[in-house]
Every structure is written in structure tokens, then in C-alpha cells.
């Protein structure tokens, strides 16, 4: 896919910038490969120690008593295992950071190309995107939202899961947000949008509807913009960064690009799981839809006092 | 040696993630040589797999830390059940981020306590409580420290007064001394400008001229004719103004003669009959006066501009004679200052300012010497 794009735009001066970005990406990919190899080395090394620990545990359990000898030995083994685990974590984090770096480079490139308008129709710009493709993209974006794995003692940062953004946070161009726009008939709706720019002078965002570039660009004040989370919260380590049962949220209705009010049914159990939510729906007897799955990326806190 | 059931350790299963099963892409990438490299489309799946590996490694790390802590505590305070309980409480209290599943496991494993964590502290007796305080000393210490803040705040507030004088401060003082030198230019009083009534009259006329030009231009665009007013330029405007002023002055004054002349006349007039020539000590003036008188008796509409310069010279000559005669003290006319109240006021204020700044300067010098 990348190679095709290269061929088509090679003749323009913009191509030079693309090529240099490409080479940087290639560099980063090589580095990533090395990091992954290092990770595995580290893991296989520490494997040995873990096996020892396992053996000692078994022996202690069979002997049914804990001698000081065993205790000291266990302590030593644990310390080594701790050091190994830390080293493994470090390399894994480096690898994940590298992936994030590559992704941000790709994202920058996409935004620059969008502005320059050099994309061909066969590339996936919003203009000619079909519904199915858009939905797949949304799903992918939700899946690849980085997981926040803090070191022991780290607190989840703002925009991780349910943790709100800090008061003076300004969304960057390319960030996805939930935007409250007024439709032609006067109805207000929360839509999924991408930030184009922010003006400090007027305190307003310019956003694009994620569905179709043909739709007009909206200019909205900060109060009408909710930034979507930039990390997933890990239920195993930071459950407090997740929305709890019965909490009122704005969630993206499946197969659409609009947010609606919903109650949390169940928070995710594992990092890759989705929230299960009940959308407010007057067409059902109890006023709520059956539980539907929505990814962590598309669930934000609801600020509206009553339904519009 | 303690029994196994006394051991608070948990014997976690520290198996690492089997990457062959759980992380296929990761495994595939590993198998590749450097030349093949990674494709961009593989990034997403790689990211997910790496995240899985990382989360399991972090979990392992945390558990290991907890277990080592227990082990250390246990070894240090061997043989005392209460301490074991405390050790576990310390674990439960201190790291809340370790997640619920682990906490529950630890509590479950406790062969000692009657039930879950919160119930346990209540069932303790006094002695362990004291020891518990030792453990929980750290959290209590923290609130104590802020309470002792008052003396710190006091010293912080007094500091600016007691601090040593730094070279920076000396420098700022010297800089402050410099400005007094360039005040001289502030003292210059600009010369009296045109009186505002004149200026405004001039501006108004210019305005009308412009309006006239615009109106005329609009009306006579094709012909290219301009109104009479537009032919005037500033000089003409000035002349026009002077004419109107001259016209104004005369009716206001009612009399073309200077103030001194008027007073003299008034003094000399005994009855309503104006006969200045009789008592006038200035014979050569009489001709002029009669001339001027003639001008006054004749209708004022004529020769107005003519009599104005006359009366001025008349005025000054009368004044000179009177001074020579000793009838009038020589007034030291201090230029226009006495008439100009604004100027007088300005001078007064400037004098004050000079005195004040001189005073300030001496004070600053004193400070510098310190």
C-alpha cells in the first residue's frame, strides 16, 4: 500500500518529503525489529529463573515446612526475577514507544497529505469511503488505542480511560473528539469528529465530521468538544480508571458515527474487552436498549443534565 | 521452623506468557531475519501483542515485589503471628494500586485472621495496636508536618527585611539613580501654541472646505468645476479667519483704543463731554488723538483696520509718558507668564518636583553608601 503511493507521487517536490518520511519510518521499523529480538532474549533468559522459582515452590509445598534456607533462597530468586521482569518491561516499553513513534509519523504524513490534497481516490480518503470501510477503520482505531500500563506507583494520566482531560487541555490537530453540532433542523447531536485546528484567539476548535469530508467544517467553542481517551485503561491494574456500572456516559452507537446517552452495564474485564452499555431508547419498554458493546475509545463522560 | 500453613507467601505461578500461542505475530517477526523487517500493516497486531506481554510482565513484577516484601517482613519478625498479620496489613494498606484480585488472594490465603481485611483491625488487642502504629507511622507523620508550618511561614515573611544586601540590589539602586539625570528634558515647557479657539476655527474652516469640495465634486463631476471654497488653501483660510476675528473684535470691544488710553480718558473726563485735549500733557499726541477721535466719532464701519495699529502705538507712547512723569510705576511685565495661569501652575509644580527628586536622590545615595 505504501509502495503504490510512492510510485504515484514521485514526480512532485512533495515526494521528497514523503521519501524522507519513508526512510525515517524504515529506520524506525528496523529499530523496532531489533528491540523485539532483544525482548525475546530477555524473556528466555528470565525464563530460567522463573522455572527455578517454580521448582522451589513445589519443593517447599511437598516438604510442608519452610526452612530459613528455603526462605533465603526464595528471596534471592525473587529478587533476580524482579530485576528480570523490570528489564523485560523496559524493553517492551521501548518497543511500544517505537511503535507509537512510527504511528505518529504516519499520522503526520496523513494529515499533511490531506492538506496537500495529493491522495488519489483509491487511497482511503473520507470522500469516497463506503460505510463498511469507515466502520472497519473505526474499529481498528479502537483496537489499537495504546493500553496504559503504569509502572508500580504510577497513576493513570488524564485521557486514560475514564480519567478526564485537565482543565486547560487543548486537543491537537488529528485528535478525535466528540463534538456537539447543530444540524440544519436545529437538532443538536454529538458526532465523532477530528480536530483540524484550534484558535487561541477565539478559543474555538475547527473540526471535521469523520464521515465524509464533503460535510462542512464546524467551528465550535471548547464547551462543545469532548476529547476521546488516548489510552485504554487496564482493568487488571487500574480499575479506577474505568467507568463503573450504572454510570451515565456518551457512547458511540455501533455502526454509526454519533454519540448517545447510555448507562454502563459492565466495564471491561480484560484489556482488550469493550464496555457493555445500555443506550437510552424510548422504543423499548424500560427505556433502554439491550446491552451493546462499545470500545473504550468511544465512551466518554456525559455532561448534559437532561436529554435534548 | 514454621509450618507451611504459617507461611503467608502465596506461591504464585510465575510462568511467563507463552508467546508461541498468544502472540503469533510476535513469534513470526522473531523468526524473520533483519532484512525482511516488519511491515507497517503488522504494527497494529504487534502493538496488541506487545501490550499483552508488557501487562503480564508488569503484573509479575508487582506480585514479586509484594511477595518479597512479605518474605522480608516475615524473616525479620519471625515467630510472631501478630506481626504476620501486621505485615499483611502493611501490604494491604500501602499499595492500593495492586488491584483487587491480588488483595483478595492475599486475604484469602491468610490462615490467621477470622475474615476479610476490614474486620481484622477491630479484633486486635492493644499491644498489636501500638505496633501497628509503628507500621502506619508514615501516613500519620505526613499530616503532622504541615501543621508545623507556622514558624516557617513567619521566617519566610520576615526574610525580605533581614536578608543580606546582594550586589543585584546595589545594581538596581544605581540604575534608579540614573533616571534623575535625564529629567531635564521633561522640564522644558513647550512654547505656547496657537490658542485653541483659533486652532479650532481653522480646523472647522478646513472641514467645511473639504465638505464643499466633496459636494462640489459630486455635483459637478462631469464639468470638473470646483466650489469657491476649494480654491482657498491654508493661507487663505488664515486670512479669512483673521478678517472674521477682526470683525469680531471691534464690536466686542466697543472701542478701538488700548486699556491705558481708556483709563486716562476716563480719569480726565469730568463730565460727559469728551475733551481730552484740554488737560492732556502731551501736546504732540493731540493731533493723533483728534485723528483717532475723528475716527471714533465717525461711523465705526469705516477704517477699522486703520485705527487698530494707531491705537496700539498711541497706547505705548502714553504709557511711556506716564512712566516718565512718574504717574505710573514701571511694571515689570513678566512676559506672558502672569497672564498665563496654566504656565504659572506648571512652573510651581515643576519646582516641587525638582525639590522632591533631589530629596529622593540624596536618600538613594545614602542607601548606596550603606
TrEMBL record, chain A:
Q: Where is the SGF29 C-terminal domain?
A: 167-308
The record's section on InterPro entries has:
SGF29 (IPR037802), SGF29_tudor-like_dom (IPR010750), Tudor_SGF29_rpt1 (IPR047288), Tudor_SGF29_rpt2 (IPR047287)
Keywords of the record: Coiled coil, Nucleus, Transcription, Transcription regulation
Origin: domain of life: Eukaryota
Q: Is Nucleus given among the entry's keywords?
A: yes
Coiled coil ranges (UniProt) are 18-56
Localization recorded for this chain is: Nucleus
Major localisation: nucleus
| Pfam families from the UniProt entry | SGF29_Tudor (PF07039)
Q: Which PROSITE patterns match?
A: SGF29_C (PS51518)
- Protein name as catalogued: SGF29 C-terminal domain-containing protein
- State the species of origin: Felis catus
Q: What is the lineage of its organism?
A: Eukaryota, Metazoa, Chordata, Craniata, Vertebrata
Its gene name is: SGF29
Automatic annotation (TrEMBL), chain B:
Which stretches of sequence are listed as region Disordered? Answer: 87-126, 271-319
Location, primary (coarse class): nucleus
Which Pfam families does the record associate with it? Ada3
Q: Which InterPro entries does the protein's record reference?
A: Histone_AcTrfase_su3
Q: Where does the record say this protein resides? A: Nucleus
Biased region (Polar residues) positions are 295-305
Q: Which family does it belong to?
A: Belongs to the NGG1 family.
What does this gene product do? Functions as a component of the PCAF complex. The PCAF complex is capable of efficiently acetylating histones in a nucleosomal context. The PCAF complex could be considered as the human version of the yeast SAGA complex. Also known as a coactivator for p53/TP53-dependent transcriptional activation. Component of the ATAC complex, a complex with histone acetyltransferase activity on histones H3 and H4.
Q: What is this protein called?
A: Transcriptional adapter 3
Q: Which species expresses this protein natively?
A: Felis catus (Cat)
Gene label? TADA3
Amino acid at each position: 500500500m505504501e509502495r503504490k503511493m510512492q510510485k504515484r507521487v514521485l514526480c512532485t517536490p512533495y515526494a521528497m518529503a514523503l521519501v524522507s518520511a519513508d526512510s525515517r519510518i524504515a529506520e524506525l521499523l528496523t529499530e523496532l525489529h531489533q528491540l523485539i529480538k532483544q525482548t525475546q532474549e530477555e524473556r528466555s533468559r528470565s525464563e530460567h529463573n522463573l522455572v527455578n522459582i517454580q521448582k522451589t515452590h513445589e519443593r517447599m509445598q511437598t516438604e510442608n515446612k519452610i526452612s530459613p534456607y528455603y526462605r533465603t533462597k526464595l528471596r534471592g530468586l525473587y529478587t533476580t526475577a524482579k530485576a528480570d521482569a523490570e528489564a523485560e518491561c523496559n524493553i517492551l516499553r521501548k518497543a511500544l514507544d517505537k511503535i507509537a513513534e512510527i504511528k505518529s509519523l504516519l499520522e503526520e504524513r496523513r494529515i499533511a497529505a490531506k492538506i496537500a490534497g495529493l491522495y488519489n481516490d483509491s487511497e482511503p480518503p473520507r470522500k469516497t469511503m463506503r460505510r463498511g470501510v469507515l466502520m472497519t477503520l473505526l474499529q481498528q482505531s479502537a483496537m489499537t488505542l495504546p493500553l496504559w500500563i503504569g509502572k508500580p506507583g504510577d497513576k493513570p494520566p488524564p485521557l486514560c480511560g475514564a480519567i478526564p482531560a485537565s482543565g486547560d487541555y487543548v486537543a491537537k490537530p488529528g485528535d478525535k473528539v466528540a463534538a456537539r453540532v447543530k444540524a440544519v433542523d436545529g437538532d443538536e447531536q454529538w458526532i465523532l469528529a477530528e480536530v483540524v485546528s484550534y484558535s487561541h484567539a477565539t478559543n474555538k476548535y475547527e473540526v471535521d465530521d469523520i464521515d465524509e469530508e464533503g460535510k462542512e467544517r464546524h467551528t465550535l467553542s471548547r464547551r462543545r468538544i469532548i476529547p476521546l481517551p488516548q489510552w485504554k485503561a487496564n482493568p487488571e491494574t487500574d480499575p479506577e480508571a474505568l467507568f463503573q456500572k450504572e454510570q451515565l456516559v456518551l457512547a458511540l452507537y455501533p455502526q454509526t458515527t454519533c454519540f448517545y446517552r447510555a448507562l454502563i452495564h459492565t466495564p471491561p474485564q480484560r484489556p482488550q474487552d469493550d464496555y457493555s452499555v445500555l443506550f437510552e431508547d424510548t422504543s423499548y419498554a424500560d427505556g433502554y436498549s439491550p446491552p451493546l458493546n462499545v470500545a473504550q475509545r468511544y465512551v466518554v463522560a456525559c455532561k448534559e443534565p437532561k436529554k435534548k | 521452623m514454621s509450618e507451611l500453613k504459617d507461611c503467608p507467601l502465596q506461591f504464585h505461578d510465575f510462568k511467563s506468557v507463552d508467546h508461541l500461542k498468544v502472540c503469533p505475530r510476535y513469534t513470526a517477526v522473531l523468526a524473520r531475519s533483519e532484512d525482511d523487517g516488519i511491515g507497517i500493516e503488522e504494527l497494529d497486531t504487534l502493538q496488541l501483542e506487545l501490550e499483552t506481554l508488557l501487562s503480564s510482565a508488569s503484573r509479575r513484577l508487582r506480585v514479586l515485589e509484594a511477595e518479597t516484601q512479605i518474605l522480608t517482613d516475615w524473616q525479620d519478625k519471625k515467630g510472631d503471628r501478630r506481626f504476620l498479620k501486621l505485615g499483611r496489613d502493611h501490604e494491604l494498606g500501602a499499595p492500593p494500586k495492586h488491584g483487587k484480585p491480588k488483595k483478595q488472594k492475599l486475604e484469602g490465603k491468610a490462615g490467621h485472621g477470622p475474615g476479610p481485611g476490614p474486620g481484622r483491625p477491630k479484633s486486635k488487642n492493644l499491644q498489636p495496636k501500638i505496633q501497628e502504629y509503628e507500621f502506619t507511622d508514615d501516613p500519620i507523620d505526613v499530616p503532622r508536618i504541615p501543621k508545623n508550618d507556622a514558624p516557617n511561614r513567619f521566617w519566610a515573611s520576615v526574610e525580605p527585611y533581614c536578608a543580606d544586601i546582594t550586589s543585584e540590589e546595589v545594581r538596581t539602586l544605581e540604575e534608579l539613580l540614573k533616571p534623575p539625570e535625564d529629567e531635564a528634558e521633561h522640564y522644558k515647557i513647550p512654547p505656547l501654541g496657537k490658542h485653541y479657539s483659533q486652532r479650532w476655527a481653522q480646523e472647522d474652516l478646513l472641514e467645511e472646505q473639504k465638505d464643499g469640495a466633496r459636494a462640489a465634486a459630486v455635483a459637478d463631476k462631469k464639468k470638473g468645476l470646483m466650489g469657491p471654497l476649494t480654491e482657498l488653501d491654508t493661507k487663505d483660510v488664515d486670512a479669512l479667519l483673521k478678517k472674521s476675528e477682526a470683525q469680531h473684535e471691534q464690536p466686542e470691544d466697543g472701542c478701538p483704543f488700548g486699556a491705558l488710553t481708556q483709563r486716562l480718558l476716563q480719569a480726565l473726563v469730568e463730565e460727559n463731554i469728551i475733551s481730552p485735549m484740554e488737560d492732556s500733557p502731551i501736546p504732540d499726541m493731540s493731533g493723533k488723538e483728534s485723528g483717532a477721535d475723528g475716527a471714533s466719532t465717525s461711523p465705526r464701519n469705516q477704517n477699522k483696520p486703520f485705527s487698530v495699529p494707531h491705537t496700539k502705538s498711541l497706547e505705548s507712547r502714553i504709557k511711556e509718558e506716564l512712566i516718565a512723569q512718574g504717574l505710573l510705576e514701571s511694571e515689570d511685565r513678566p512676559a506672558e507668564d502672569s497672564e498665563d495661569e496654566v504656565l504659572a501652575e506648571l512652573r510651581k509644580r515643576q519646582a516641587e518636583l525638582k525639590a522632591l527628586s533631589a530629596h529622593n536622590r540624596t536618600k538613594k545615595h545614602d542607601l548606596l553608601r550603606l
